[in-house]
Amino acid sequence: MSGLHDLASSRLNALWYGSNRLFWMLWPLSLFYRVLVAFRRFAYRSNWFRSVDVGVPVIVIGNLTVGGTGKTPLTIWLARRLIERGLSVGIVCRGYGGTARHWPQPVDASSHVETVGDEAKLLARRVSCRVVAGPDRAAAANMLLGQEPVDVILSDDGLQHYRLQRGFEIAVVDGSRGFGNGLCLPAGPLREPVSRLGQVSAVVVNDGELGPAGAFHAGVRPVYVYELATGSERSLADFGGQSVHAVAAIGNPGRFFDLLSQYGLIVEPHPLPDHASFDKAGLDFDDGLPVLMTEKDAVKCESSKAGNLWCVVMELEFSSDDGERLERMLMPFLGRQSENP
Fold this sequence. Notes:
- By secondary structure, this protein is of the alpha/beta class.
- Helix content is 29%, strand content 22%.
- Strands 1, 2, 3, 4, 5, 6, 7, 8, 9, 10, 11, 12 and 13 form a 13-stranded mixed β-sheet that branches.
- The N and C termini lie far apart (51 Å).
């Protein structure tokens, strides 16, 4: 089943982001989907469908397209900045790929990635705050608040999860891939039409100049690389001029491969669908070359003692003063000023 899913995902991405015109065969379904999306949003805004106010400010970090755009790096960046300002932060997320029998699930650095999903585990490892995962973000938020009160909740993904009331929405756009053919599912990659960007509080463009006027621009940069088996650290530049295997099961694997190439690495790319699982055998290329991967993939390989598996740790970095501008925009919503301006 996994192979069929991966094949379908690959073909859909080729249809959505390539030059294949066959997507027009799916246009009637896309139109029907768009009508359903509009009705659902209207139903929540009209209180026909019940949304949940959890009693604290909620910031949603989401996107319009299927697959990753950089939501999790932004969630990590924002959580850390708010904690530095003296705010207590909680994070809720989908737990995509997790196989837990019961949701929501509290997540910490020792949680099993198979149970809670790769992004939830990564968030718990990278941010010193409580994390709860579950498909129902409102239930996850209530579980989080039941453990201990917080000043603000960040929802990693969930722009379309209207059951959880929110006061501030940040849409993250993949600046290198954009919106593909501009159509909604299944003919295109959009979960909501591009016009939805005009209704969010802020737009962050990850890696590129695409986006509406007033958008904030950011990108990821490598901080260091560590070997999974030993914890030994190196800089990415240390691999310059070397041939490496690069494995990426993220929304846009090409961005990871391009980044490695920019640092002078000779990359043998191994793209996989977002959240795809892989085992030790899938990382053994039998040639002794280093295997580099993202942090989201590395949390799925923590138990591996195989050598020459390296994780590239990256941080989000805003262009110019965009990060400070975004923080200033958030402060009135949060109702307090920074204790560390």
